[in-house]
Write a structure and sequence with these properties.
The complex is a heterodimer. In chain A, 80% of the residues lie in helices and 2% in strands. Chain A is built from 8 helices and 2 strands. A two-stranded antiparallel ribbon of chain A has the order 1-2. In chain A, α4 packs antiparallel against α8. The radius of gyration of chain A is 20 Å and the shape is globular. The chains are: A mainly alpha, B mainly alpha.
Chain lengths: 207, 177
Amino acid sequence: MKNQFPFGLILLGVLIAIGAYFYSISLLTSFLWFTGIIFGFILQKSRFCFTASMRDLYLTRRATVFKALLVALALTTLGITTIKYFYFLNGQTIPRKSFVLPVSLATAIGGFLFGIVMVIAGGCASGTLMRVGEGHLMQAVTLVFIIIGSALGSHDYGFWYKNFISKGKTIFLPDQFGWLGALILQLALLFILFKLASYWENRGDEE
Amino acid sequence: MKLYDIKGLKKWLKNPWSYLTGAVLLSIFQTITFAVTGEPLGITRAFTNWAGWILGFLGASPGTWYYFNMEEVHSSFSAGLLMDNSSIRVIGIIIGACLASLLASEFRIRKIKSKKQIVGAVLGGILMGYGSRVANGCNIGAFYGGIASLSLSGWIFGIFLFLGAVIGSILLVRYLI
């Protein structure tokens, strides 16, 4: 395998230069640029794949990726909730708008569709981006069609919003169980899933 | 390769990392992202913006659609590529993966191998794009971000994601392998 390390260094230099340009626009822009690069880097090196986590669990009874996913969920929950709690203590508005979404048929259908398709396509959204970066032409095709699908989805979004999403209930767990209660409940649930996954994997080994 | 014999370089740049390492690092950067931007990482917003710009370029008027007029979408959509922060981050993710593979000398243009896979990519891509828009996010946003935000929507999305993955796995084995 020929040595690509020098190219990597050159690319790194270019990326830092671009980042400096973005910094001149705003700190936030350069922050998003560099965190994107870091995320892509982490995804590629660890081959973290949501698709593999679920597919392997079912098809080959391998729970390795799934358990790592649970760890990521638990740690990120802890990190984000701690920050939210500090906002709460200071009486400021808690930033939580983005992914605290209404629960409706749209959530279920969207998730189900995404699940089927991410396995068939060989990767989820982040996995696709990662593989495009590695040079996979197939995932470049997938990405093009994800954009097309997004166009169709954006076009229909009004329909989904009016008929389902706007009628859904948004449930932020701390509203129901309190901050500590919700945190403990979620971490406990993740822990139980972790144990179940291990059990499922071991049972598969025994057979 | 002599270069990779340098201590540290081999471990962190050449060799793959464990899933657990990935999980911990992703969590750290998700938390930092949240601290700075007020929300976890999301990637589908960029896709819809790209779709909207391309459609606009081709003569359609997505600006009239409900979606692009929503408060949280409108500002980034109107801003254009260089000024849309979410797009910049998504492009960063692709390039970050490219950087990682180059530094490990693993970058390779991998050609498309079978026609069946193309069907999977086309159909899969369209439905992934559609599904992620309807659910307001994908595996990273609606699922990972949703659960980490202690939102029930994340769990519901996750349960159906898993059910879908099971069906997808069955279909994969039956028709595509």
